[in-house]
Amino acid sequence: MASGTTGTVAGRPQPQTTAEPAGGPFVRHAPDGRRAMYVAAGAAAGTGAAQFVANPMVSSPGWNKGYRVLTQLTAGTGASALTVTNQDAPFNFHQLVQMKDAFGTQLLTGPGYEISNLVPLYSGQFGTDEMRPAQNSPQFNPIFTAIGAGTGNCQFPTYFPFEFAKGYGVISGANAALLPVLQINLASIVGLFGTGTYTTAPTSTLTVDSDFYWLPNVPADPPGIGTTCQWIFQPCNPTIPSGASTLVQLPRLGGYLTMLILELRNASGVRVGEGQAFDFGATGNLDTGTGWPVRPKILVDGVPLIDSLFGTIAEDIAIGMQIGALGGNILNNATGVANGTAQAYRPRGTIAISRKNSLAQRDFGLLETGEIFLSTNPGTQIEVAGYPWGTVTTGPMTLNAIVGQVVPSGALVRGLPEA
User: How far apart are CA 93 and CA 88, in angstroms?
Assistant: First the structure.
């Protein structure tokens, strides 16, 4: 053996990235990450009472941007073909969603269709353009593909967002004692299907992952720590008789509004009015039914902010969000085959007024300066008027508001904090 020969101990390989010098925006020093929160498996989706999922979250080494949630219904066996009659399926399987931060602040609260579908669709906080709707996700396997077999098996993704501009609105995830709380009431399978029978009801599995920013390796904090974007579902008052000429008041607010989603339902809870029919249990590609006024008016403190034809509002949505713009692909609700109707459908009975197009005519998602967020306080009164509202067979109608509201910690950070 040669003299001077020494042995070495193999060490753990080190990351090959080079640390950024101090300074610059938070996102330069905080790479994107994702980790598992939990898998809630085996909850029965049968005909009994709704199930309740509220598994504790785990810490992530950084700042949470939002939660990815994949819902799967599996292992069902059918005795006869199933018919979907609820237009909110499959998202209404999430009967009620409540998302709170560690201090109990409500970040997302409302029925599953609105929180699990309309918020990701319209908010710009999860995907843009063709990937806005969950129905365009490669993970979306809708119920109607299994109707003939009568199994009721399906899966659908959604996203519960915190971040509303790049790096802004994130929630601390590194402190295991201060973690958000996600609670989901799951409906029974009867809530998804109207007719048909099954031998074995499918069971549900909810997989929850967190998108987060890693803790920076230099002193750098996300902009506006403590600022939250809250999405709250609330019915408006009063109800709307068929064909009435009346004002409807939204609930009192008190923050900077990023998006105002309005949803019109009849006395049976069915969404009414124009919209492209990707809705389950619906027929045709365009619902020309009534409900919305021909010319809705949106007033802030008694002053008309928008006085427009309904069709022009639909144009604004297509221009700003590409929702309802013709020429792309959408699955036919009866066959599951792409029919080229719209790249992102506008759900029946819904419209959205965006305040996230300060950079251009378009909503660029997280690329947002906040310059034209609508500043409100608890005394601000927003109203929607119809002279008259449309007629419906089952009245009165209820207008629901799903409002994206930024509540800043200190002054609102404007401009591009990530630049």
Answer: 9
Strand partners for 155: 72, 141
| Residue whose C-alpha is closest to residue 398's, from 251, 217, 198, 212 | 251
Regions of the chain where pLDDT drops below 50: 144-148, 277-278, 280-289, 328-330, 332-334, 336, 338-340
The count of domains in the chain is 1
CB 170, CB 213: distance < 8 Å: yes
Residue 95 exposure: Cα atoms within 13 Å on the Cβ side: 14
CATH of the domain at 156: 2.60.120.730
Tokens of 334: 């009866």
73 lies in some domain? yes
Q: Which residue range forms the structural domain that includes residue 244?
A: 28-407
Q: Each residue of 209-257: pLDDT tens digit?
A: 999 999 988 888 899 999 999 999 999 999 999 999 999 999 988 899 9
Give CA torsion, residues 247, 297, 382, 124, to 10 deg.
140
